[in-house]
Automatic annotation (TrEMBL), chain A:
Keywords attached to this entry: Membrane, Transmembrane, Transmembrane helix
Name of the molecule in the record: Gaa1-like protein
Transmembrane segments: 57-77, 434-454, 496-522, 528-549, 570-596, 616-636, 657-680
InterPro entries on file: Gaa1
Annotated source species: Pterulicium gracile
Region entry Disordered, spans: 1-27
One GO CC term, this protein: GPI-anchor transamidase complex
From TrEMBL, chain B:
Keywords: Endoplasmic reticulum, GPI-anchor biosynthesis, Membrane, Transmembrane, Transmembrane helix
Membrane topology of this protein: Multi-pass membrane protein
Residues annotated as transmembrane: 96-117, 137-164, 176-201, 228-248, 260-278, 290-308, 315-331, 361-381, 387-409
Pathway(s) the chain acts in: Glycolipid biosynthesis; glycosylphosphatidylinositol-anchor biosynthesis
Record localization: Endoplasmic reticulum membrane
Family under the similarity heading: Belongs to the PIGU family.
Major subcellular site: endoplasmic reticulum
GO CC annotation terms, alphabetical: GPI-anchor transamidase complex
Protein name: GPI transamidase subunit PIG-U
InterPro entries (UniProt xref): PIG-U
Automatic annotation (TrEMBL), chain C:
The entry's keywords: Membrane, Signal, Transmembrane, Transmembrane helix
Cleaved signal peptide residues: 1-19
Recorded GO CC terms: GPI-anchor transamidase complex
Gene Ontology biological-process annotations: attachment of GPI anchor to protein
Name of protein: GPI transamidase component PIG-T
Protein species of origin: Pterulicium gracile
Amino acid sequence: MESPPTKQTTAQATLVPPPPPPARENPVKRFLGRLKASPATKIRRRKAMNAKIHKNLGWLKLLLFIVGYVWMLVIPYPDLGRKTYSDENALQPAQVHTSYNWGDVRKADKYLEGLESLVAANATSERIATHLSDEFAKLGLLTATQAYNLSTTNDLSSGVNTYAILRSPRISGAEAILVGASWLSRTGEGDGTLNLRGVSTVLSIASFLRRSSHWAKDIIFVVSDGYMDGMQAFLTTYHGQTQSNIQAQPLRHSSGVIWTAMAIDYPAHSFSHLGVFHEALNGRLPNADLLHSFQLISRYAGGVPVIMYDHLDWREHPALRKQFDWVTPKWLPRSIRDRKELKTFAYHARNVWRHWGYQARGKASGIHGLMRQYRIDAFTMFALPAVGPHGFHAIGKTIESTLRTMNNLLERLHASVFFYTLTAPDRFIKIGNYLPSAVIVSVAMMFTGLGFWVDAGWERILVPGGKALAIGGKALAIGETAFRGEDRWKQRSRPVLAVLMIMALTHALGGALYTLCTTAVFLQNIPILLPLISLLIFGVPIILSSFIAPSASSQISKTLQALNLSFASTIISITTVLNFSLAALLCALLGLPLALGSSAAPTRSSPSSSGYPLKYPVYTLYALLGYGFLTLGLLYSPNLVVQAIQGGVRDWEAFGVWFVPLFCGVYVPLVVQAGVVVLLA
Amino acid sequence: MSATTRTTTTTKGLGVSLGATLSTITALRICLAFTKDVSTYLQYEQLLSSPLTSYTRLQEGLFLFNHDVDPYSGGLFYHSPLYLSIFSTIIPNSRFIASLLWTFADALGAWALVQIWRARQGVSSPTSRDSLVAVSYLLNPYTLLPSLALSTSSLENTLTLLAIMLASQRLHSPSLLALALLITLNPSSILLLAPVLLLLAHPTGPKSNLASPSTGSVLTTPLLKKTVLPLFAEFFAYIAVLVGASALTSGGWSWVGQNVFAGVLLPDLTPNTGLWWYFFTEMFDHFRPFFLMVFTMHLLIYIAPICVKFQHDPLFATLLLQGILGTFKAYPTLADPGLFIAMVSVFPEIYSHLRHPIVTTLLHIHAALLLPLFNHLWLAHGAGNANFFYASTLVFACANGAGVLDCLWAGLRVGIEKLSTGEKASEDVEEEWTVVQE
Amino acid sequence: MKSLCFTALILSLITPAWTTTPTEQFYEELSFRNLKDGRVATRFSFKTVLNGSVPRDPSTLGQEDQSQHYRLFPLAMGQILREYALTELHLTLNAGNWDYDRWGYLDEPSVGTGAELWTWMADGAPSSIDERWEGTRNALGGLFCSSLGGLNDKRTTSPESVFRPEGDLPDWGKPHRLRHASLASENVCTENLTPFIKLLPCKALSGIATLLNPHRLFDADWHGLGVHVVWNEHTGVEISLVIQAVLNPFRFSQEKTIEWSFNSLFKKQVERQCPIASASTLSVSFPAGESWSLEPQGSKSEGGVSLYDLAQAQYPFDLQAKASTDLSTSVHEDFKPPLRVQRALNGPSQAYGRLSVSFSNTGAAPVQALYLETMPWLVQFYLHTLTASANGTENGELLSHIQYTPAVPHGKPATVQLEVHVPAYTEVLLTMEVAKSFLRYTDHPPDAQRGWDLPPAVVIPFLVEQNSSSNAISLRKLPRMYTNSLLVDLATPDFSMPYNVIIFTCSLIAFLFGSVFNMLTRNFVVVSLKDDSETEKP
């Protein structure tokens, strides 16, 4: 290498003459000619193509948006999903002969009487816990109670858990199954309905299991106090975690790794269906094999039909039609409303909607939801209150058979999917069939952002016609639009640093909002402080944006919108994997609104033109979309908003639900940025 | 990356003096160190510290070393014995002191980077971009977070910057010493040896010759003989001394296998941001040695071409090789690509020619968000499996590779521009002329 | 047949070996312990003593061994012992987790879950200790149909201060060495019992061995087989085969009265006595303060223990035991152990975790505990994070004499051995951060998602006794205890991916490599775009 290449470079960097026009007559020749076209020709083609793409970018974006949103709407459509199936062959659901018999039912009734008498004498948590623990002890199980208290910013709850461990014969006790029941039923998210039958079921199951010797895992029975808090306290202590706001007694007895768990919720006298609740914290889900096995077992071993949540299938219960009117409105002609597909669609839609409700907010739909963070696959079986026909016997058999299935496991549940959407107890949608919808929307946003990015990088300058014509006639640099007449485009650099500053500021604003929201003062007088804070967030951008020189503003606005859209699209496309419902929500709230941003403004306004009239109304709309709706909600029904905010903050502090931080730190700032875009446009 | 740097062409710095920037940021970090011990939260983050740079493992090694157990006899400690000697003698081993030390190391690194920038501009007085350059290193999340996690890669970054700075200030022996120290601490940095030697030997030193490739193409036999060889000899002497010192401290040669060859034999398959770990987790046993050889060769193969092509601007060659390291080395952390990105701020002349800056930036944003998420999804939540995290490392590799390609293209492209346009403003010419590689 | 015996007799008469053939005795002993919670802990022990014999000197391993003639001593074991010149050998196969709180100690301390094998052998053989260890492993594995081959170098340690020899060690001028290994995931079943019974002189045809009914034995809450060979200077080589089980007589019965018989426990009874047993005894013991009625009565009974001499018993022999008191089902800590030891591996992450061991001393006397943790390299210790806290307050003085050998990846396990001082009425908590290894995909077992069983740790409590007269403090060593075994999750790669990973990674690298060199090597040209665009139009 004694003659370095750079020399050649400089030497050869000479002008290449324009290529001779390729032969016209023969299409084949012409094609070949195109193949071996000179660089110039190739580049010209490429540029022309880019120009075309950029010209039609608008249509492309529109198409993507439409496809994405429509896809989201049709997710409940039956043909999109498929029947659930079992991937893990070891499970063998409903393959065993169950022996939970009427003797055990009688025991359950006895336990129930005991509990009811305690409740009638309105005994304290300690009293109840010691009673339960004595009952377990009589069965010869290792048992103890655990007092805890959980304190959050504006709330303090305390109680006493009871747990018992059945050491199964002949095993090392390195693996365990958990059977849990919370003292409060999940009815109305723990509105005070007692789960007495659930607890007595647990007791009778314990006394029943003690008699058999074929258990390959220890079985842990937990009766957790309160609705969620008790189980949270138990689980954190069991796994040796320390949560700063939980003080709980250490556990005297301990067992092995918990792989699977089930929570029993049996509030009323008897039940007609068993409902499956499976959403865990922060939108995580248990392995699909578990739910599939349970619905098989319940049908064939327990003889109880399974439903999603507490949703009865209105195709079997026409009385419930009105619950579905929001999907199939009355004004639709009967011929359409009664179509089978539409009915199924409506049923699925209701389930999916409920599912999204839990997942998007990151809420757990029961105590099972607290376990996923410790890699425990769990679900809650909810005995739907009814006047029959089922009772302890059916649920006992179901539980026994489910335990046998869990007992069969040789490995953690890993075969089947963790990312899915249940549309019905026996139907689910694979991730591949719903994920793309949100991704497509985010791609559309990304394109929009890139479009603005390109625009921000070019400015139109008027030049004397002569020179323009001398040069003119061609679409040029990438992203350049079709080129008209005498004005031409000049590349200019984008004020990215300033824009990044603005974005950083908005996110700082969000951080401040978060710190405010988690103070006791705020949580106690939301109705007063919320409007004030909203006003603050509304005002700050207006004031700050007034400092920006109008000459720079339009370009800053474009660049800001570009980065804002790109960032939002990134957030969405990443969230899709972790928590699709949240991503869908963000798509709906951010997708079009952010993209439409400054489109109300005269596009590519030359520095001279001064803003546009609609500025402040549009900005206000953004404010409403971002945070204003809460204040509006105050006018509508204060309690709802107050409870929503307090609940959200409590979920974050007690169970680490990410919704509130995300809302404050990501969502609000993004919308505020969009507002700033409008202000500066 | 390029989004931030691109701006710097227009915005004339932050208008804040270097001293102010350094002191404020350092002060903030010190306050942080006083208030809360961040490192305990981040100590096990696999993105921030690899087995070779983890502070926890360093402490384990020190503990064993102080209790007369050979730390290299186990499978947990891969640091160089020099760390042992330093932390067991000079520096008291406590997290608080360490966080202070890491803070100052970062400040020093930023200062060195600014010195490099000034040397490249040929000025000794403060310039308007100083604070921007400093910030690009101090507040760059890729370099900041590992430093908060007390990953020793931050210290190695500082050493790298010091070596380059001294080299661009023509202080032969100090820079060679720093380089030798760096390479004994982190053998894979051997890639930077050639360009730094060139930088020392080069007549115009760190000055930017990108625009005029023909000038100062120095790679001639006499120069190699006259200047580079002695430099190399001196460097080798330092290495010999340091190796001897290591052998003395660790009282044996067991560290050679654990420390020097760790980057080649990949004894620990703990996930990191690089491409090696999953490849060799999934590799068939009988192909393992072959592919280990291939991957190591692949790293070394970049040295010669880049140094030859950019012999007129060795500092730029250093930048590119740092980028290669950040992308392809065996145990990378975020700090390695971080150093590359920070160093880009020293080369404003290339920004206008970066190929697809926005694409690279978006790739980086995606990767930066995906990496931690998928790492936790796999290891903590147990929902996603290893492929998720592997995929995100692929995205990250794409981002880093794209960054290197951008700079490479721009660095070459700058050389053409002048010639093609002559005195005309480049924008006008854009329309009728364009420059391509045939 | 008879002639054959005759010739054998003649041969044995004329061979000098006869004179050296030591006399042999066989003792069988059966004991029942009624536990508070209604279970019955039973122990079968068959001991054969080879009077005046000595283990083989390893230095003679090179040359021909003297011929072996045993009448009662199991030949298979004898061959193994001499083949590898083992001085002392202990093998136990246990299933279940021993509950010290309820079941207390048996006189047989090795109750750790899974398989455990340890031997003392002298050095000085032509073949190395480890080769002989490996041979012993495989031979025993073959003999007892269990996968003792799994007790390989990745599991083998030599904690000589914890597993002291239980007999005497002959002095050949060469040091004796210990090899110990345990495998928690190995469990015991019928296929191990059958060869075990084959080693008994009376097989299962007569004597107490008749009761060994696999269907009942292996249905017990806890059961284990043990083989112990020790050399006693005065008597000679002793081999004792032990079977223990904790039976649950009323798992199926609903009524609360405790009542059992051989028949109800084993569905068997002792048909006839083992004629060659020098002594066969039976002992039944009761928890304090409970009165029991036994049928037939014992020959003599003292301190809640009644003894039988089965030589005088009339056959078929069945024992009926019935408690006058009802079953008191509340959990009693009948045999208060000197220490409660609980071990757990916490942390949801598959990359790191925290090992925490709690020693709680409920007694009035302080306890000094020798703690031995043997960990395969799958889990690696951060020893500098080891902390001890008494009732929540950290206190470094509680730990002393820490010995640590780090684990070698794909090689030998780590061992931590330390002494914990547990004051009276306190709970001492040890915690240590650990790193979980990331394995190659070929290192994972077929059921990779289950995780790995970690062997139980061993604790030897010493009661600190201070006699009032002189303030001399004496340590009374108690039998060793075993903690529960653990299950650790290791991160698994996707086992279906190797080709995809190779393809993806390689193509990415190739792409970047290609484009870099592309740019470096190709030349720049300046192209004119200024010509008319007619060429573009079709």
